[in-house]
């Protein structure tokens, strides 16, 4: 019984203790203007000292990812204060940055920001920042109008991924939400001091609602790249290696190339957005450019006039395809790392890569062991992959020369169209006799070449 009473007593003591902590923030009479967002309990208060050039800042927000506030109507040339948890997660890193148009803001050492005692990440997972900014009233590209009753301001929240860093130039992910407001600097002017915790707007006009941001170009970059690599690519291996259908193979290859071109273009357009990627030095970008070499070789070598140059050239197609695939998969993984994706996304990507890799490997070894459908249909025994390359090239060459023939012969091929002679019958078997534009059309790319009708 005494034991229970002691426990209840301890509980009461703890409960009694809590209000002391939560209300420990004194309601001092420091002049301030306060931005407050009830959804996240985010507060950002400014005090403009009237006895010095100092600007005092008090801010609190949930300590996940980053939160930023900036002086100015838009990102460009705005002086921003970006806050994120420190490396150990028990303090706040505050990074003054200068914004640029549609790109990640850059750390600036032009302002002198001093973090004051009381700055912490508290038990509720909220960070509390108490700071004084010296030389903050002008910065490269802008200034703070302390006489303004409606100083334009911006704010933004980063993605909910864990960003823990002591570095003031830590790489940021693009904001997920942002908004605008104006702040009364006259009301914020008074005796210098850190503003108090205050969960209400004061001297602030919100301008519009918080905007949800979408990084559609980057998302499309990832999705188009993955579709090309994990859906269309294995289909192509299936059609090329197993069904030996040169027409469909060339067609699908062109589609893959189109997807890759779009993915590369979107990637390049996104690169300028972030400090870390604008010099094209990240592993993701380096691998993407290295991968171009086997991709170009893989696409050019099967062209008959090139493949005829040396007997070795046709054998290079398969190794080039494998090299391109591996490099592109690696590039994709490095891209997820570069964009700080969550672990499940990276694990999912790895799993899909492995599955597709196993699928292609099993398919290829099946083709090697059993011979392709085409080879079996033609009673050829144990056809190797290199031989398959030769077979495909021969087909491509035949189709090309026959398209040339039809072109030069013009309307004189009427009798061939009826398939009277044996050679034509043979070719009909090779190409499946469909009516879709043949490889000769895709390869020659001459708009003037008529599509040959079998
Ligand atoms: C809070 O304000 C009261 C007077 O309003 C003062 O006596 C007290 O020292 C202040 N506490 C802190 C922690 O500043
Ligand atoms: C956080 O860092 C500031 C400045 O270095 C310091 O004054 C404060 O005491 C630190 N807070 C904690 C909880 O370590
Ligand atoms: C990128 O960040 C580094 C490190 O903070 C900085 O020195 C450099 O000026 C930045 N570059 C650009 C173009 O923003
Ligand atoms: C600064 O503002 C306070 C009121 O917050 C006032 O009492 C004081 O006289 C002002 N000082 C100057 C130098 O204007
Ligand atoms: C602080 O005190 C002032 C007047 O003394 C009052 O108007 C204001 O509501 C108080 N703020 C908080 C957050 O308690």
Commentary on this structure:
The strands form three sheets. Strands 1, 2, 3, 8, 9, 10 and 15 form a seven-stranded mixed beta sheet that branches. Strands 7-6-5-4-13-14-16 form a seven-stranded antiparallel beta sheet, with no helix packed on it. Strands 11-12 form a two-stranded antiparallel sheet. The protein has twelve helices and 16 strands. With 454 residues, it is of the alpha+beta class. Mean pLDDT is 80; it is low at 14-25, 381-385 and 406-454. A hairpin with a 4-residue loop joins strand 1 and strand 2 (42-49). The chain has two domains: 32-213, Cellobiose dehydrogenase, cytochrome domain (Immunoglobulin-like); 217-374. Helix 2 (216-242) packs antiparallel against helix 3 (246-271), helix 2 (216-242) runs antiparallel to helix 6 (317-338) and helix 4 runs antiparallel to helix 6 (317-338). It is elongated and about 90 Å long. Residues 106-107, 169, 275, 278 line the site of one 2-acetamido-2-deoxy-beta-D-glucopyranose. Residues 66-158 form the DOMON domain. Residues 397-435 are annotated as: Disordered. Residues 402-416 have a biased composition (Polar residues).
Helix-strand makeup class: alpha+beta
| Mean pLDDT over all positions | 80
What is the helix tally? 12
Enumerate the distinct ligands. Answer: 2-acetamido-2-deoxy-beta-D-glucopyranose
Instruction: State the CATH topology of the largest domain.
Output: Immunoglobulin-like
Quote the distance from N terminus to C terminus: 99 Å
- Taken from the alpha-carbon principal axes, the silhouette is elongated
Query: Helix and strand string, N-terminal first?
Result: HEEEEEEEEEEEEEEEEHHHHHHHHHHH
What's the number of extended β-strand segments? 16
The CATH class label of the largest domain is Mainly Beta
Task: Report the portion of residues in β strands.
Answer: 15-25%
Domain module tally: 2
The CATH architecture of the largest domain can be given as: Sandwich
Helix content: 40-55%
- The CATH homologous superfamily of the largest domain is called Cellobiose dehydrogenase, cytochrome domain
Q: Can you tell me the residue ranges where pLDDT is under 50 for at least 5 consecutive residues? A: 14-25, 381-385, 406-454
User: Compute the gyration radius: what is it?
Assistant: 33 Å
Q: In this structure, how is the largest beta sheet organized?
A: 7 strands, mixed
């Amino acid at each position: 019984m005494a034991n229970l009473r002691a426990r209840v007593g301890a509980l009461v003591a703890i409960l009694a203790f809590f209000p002391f902590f939560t209300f420990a923030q004194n309601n001092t009479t420091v002049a301030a203007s306060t931005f407050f967002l009830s959804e996240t309990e985010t507060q950002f208060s400014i005090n403009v000292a009237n006895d010095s050039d100092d600007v005092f800042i008090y801010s609190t927000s949930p300590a996940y990812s980053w939160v930023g506030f900036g002086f100015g109507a838009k990102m460009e040339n705005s002086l921003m204060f970006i806050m994120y948890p420190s490396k150990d997660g028990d303090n706040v890193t505050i990074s003054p940055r200068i914004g640029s148009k549609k790109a990640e803001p850059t750390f600036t050492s032009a302002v002198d920001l001093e973090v004051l005692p009381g700055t912490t990440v508290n038990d509720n997972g909220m960070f509390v920042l108490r700071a004084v900014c010296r030389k903050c009233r002008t910065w490269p590209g802008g200034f703070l109008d302390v006489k303004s009753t409606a100083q334009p301001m911006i704010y933004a929240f980063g993605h909910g991924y864990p960003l823990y860093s002591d570095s003031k130039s830590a790489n940021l992910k693009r904001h997920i939400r942002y908004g605008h407001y104006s702040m009364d600097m006259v009301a914020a002017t008074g005796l210098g001091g850190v503003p108090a915790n205050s969960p209400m707007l004061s001297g602030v006009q919100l301008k519009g609602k918080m905007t949800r941001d979408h990084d559609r170009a980057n998302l499309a970059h990832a999705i188009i790249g993955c579709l090309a690599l994990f859906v269309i690519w294995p289909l192509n291996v299936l059609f090329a290696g197993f069904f030996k259908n040169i027409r469909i193979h060339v067609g699908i290859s062109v589609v893959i190339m189109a997807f890759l071109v779009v993915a590369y273009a979107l990637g390049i357009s996104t690169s300028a957005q972030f400090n870390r990627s604008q010099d094209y030095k990240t592993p993701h970008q380096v691998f993407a450019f290295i991968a171009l070499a086997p991709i170009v070789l893989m696409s050019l070598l099967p062209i008959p006039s090139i493949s005829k140059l040396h007997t070795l050239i046709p054998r290079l197609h398969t190794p080039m395809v494998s090299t391109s695939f591996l490099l592109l998969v690696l590039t994709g993984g490095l891209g997820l790392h570069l964009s700080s994706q969550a672990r499940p996304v990276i694990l999912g990507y790895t799993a899909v890569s492995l599955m597709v890799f196993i699928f292609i490997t099993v398919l290829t070894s099946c083709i090697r062991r059993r011979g392709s459908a085409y080879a079996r249909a033609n009673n050829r025994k144990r056809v190797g992959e290199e031989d398959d390359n030769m077979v495909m090239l021969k087909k491509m060459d035949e189709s090309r020369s026959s398209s040339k023939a039809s072109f030069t012969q013009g309307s004189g091929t009427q009798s061939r169209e009826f398939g009277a002679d044996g050679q034509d019958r043979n070719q009909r078997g090779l190409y499946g006799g469909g009516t879709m534009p043949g490889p000769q059309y895709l390869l020659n790319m001459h708009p003037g070449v008529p599509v040959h009708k079998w």
